[in-house]
Amino acid sequence: MRYTDVVVIGAGQAGLSSAYFLRRSGFDHVVLDANPGPGGAWQHRWPTLRMATVHGIFDLPGLRFDQPTPDTPAATALPEYFGAFEREYDLDVRRPVQVRAVRYGPDGRLLVEPAGQEPYAARAVINATGTWTRPFRPYYPGRFLGRQPHTADYRGPAEFAGQRVVVVGGGSSGVQLLMEIAEVAADTAWVTRRPPVFRAGPFTEDHGRQVVARVDERVRAGLPPESVVAVTELPLTPEIEHARATGVLHRRPMFDRLTEHGVAWADGTTWEADVILWATGWRAALDHLAPLELRSPGGGIMMDGTRVVAEPRLHLVGYGPSASTVGANRAGRAAVRELRQLLGDPRDARDPAA
C-alpha cells in the first residue's frame, strides 16, 4: 500500500492545473496518466487538425502558451506545451498507468487501484480523466452494411475519397471533418439533431464562462452533463462561410433509421451512403469510479462546483462545466482550495505507514 494526500487521475489540462495548485499548497500527491506521453487527449487528435481551427486555448497556470503557426498540428503543439509545463514545475506524473478502480479503503481513505500495480491510499482524489476514451455513438434502428467510424477514429480525409459520406453531428469537430471530406468525397450529407447556430467573432473567455454556466446547472441537479462543446456556437470563419455558400454545410434533420445502403427519414426520403461518420461526441470516462456508487436518480453525479456532493473527498475536474480549456484551470484551483478546507494544512497529515 502506498500512502499520499491526493491522487490526481489524468494529466490533461485539468489534471495538470490541479497538480500545479497541489504543489503550491504543499500537498503530497501523485498524478497517474494512462497516456504514453504528455498532451492528454490532444496527442490523439487527427493529423489534419491544425491550430488555425482549434477553439481558444487558454494558458496553463504560470506558463504562457506561445501560439505556434496556424498550420501546426494540434497533436504536436499541445503535447509539447503540456510536456514543457510538467518539466517547468517538476510534476510527478507517472505513465502509462491505467486506474482500474477507486473504492473506499482503510483508515477513512480512498483506495486508488492502478492495473498491475500496488494501490494508493489517498486522503482525497481529483479525477481528471476527460472523455476521449468514451466515444459516443447513438442508437438508431436498422442495419447499415458500410463503415461507421467515429471522430475518434478519424485520421484524415483520404480514406473517404470517391465515397458517399453521411456526417452526423453539429459540433465543431463534425463541421471540420465534413469540410475536409467534402474536398475528396463523391458526395456528402450533413445531419444534425438541432439546427446549427453560427457565431460571428472570436471565442472569448467571457463567452466561455457563459457556456460553462449553462452546463453547471445540469450537474448541480445530478443530471448527465451536457458537453461544453455541444452548447458552443460554431465560429463563423471564412472557411465555414465558404462551405455554407457552396452547399457543403447544408443541414438535414436527423434521420429515423439505418438502411443497408444508407439512411432513411420517416417521410420516405432516403440517402445512399458508403460511410456514416459519427461526430457525436463523447461521454465522461468514469467507469473506474463505479465502486463508489455515486450516480444520482437523474443518471448523473450531483456536483457542487468540482466537489461530488455524495463524496466530498472526490473532485471531478474536466467534467461537466470544467470540460473545456477555459474551465480546466479554474477547476483545478477550486478543487485544491476546497481540499485545503477539508483536509487542513497538509503539513499536519501523517503517513500511517511511518
Automatic annotation (TrEMBL):
The keyword Cell inner membrane does not apply. Keywords: Oxidoreductase. Transmembrane segments: none annotated. GO terms for molecular function: flavin adenine dinucleotide binding; monooxygenase activity. Gene3D superfamilies: FAD/NAD(P)-binding domain (3.50.50.60). InterPro entries: Auxin_biosynth/cation_transpt, FAD/NAD-bd_sf. It comes from the Bacteria. PANTHER family: FLAVIN-BINDING MONOOXYGENASE-LIKE PROTEIN (AFU_ORTHOLOGUE AFUA_4G09220), FLAVIN-CONTAINING MONOOXYGENASE. This is Pyridine nucleotide-disulfide oxidoreductase. It comes from Actinophytocola xinjiangensis. The lineage of its organism: Bacteria, Bacillati, Actinomycetota, Actinomycetes, Pseudonocardiales.
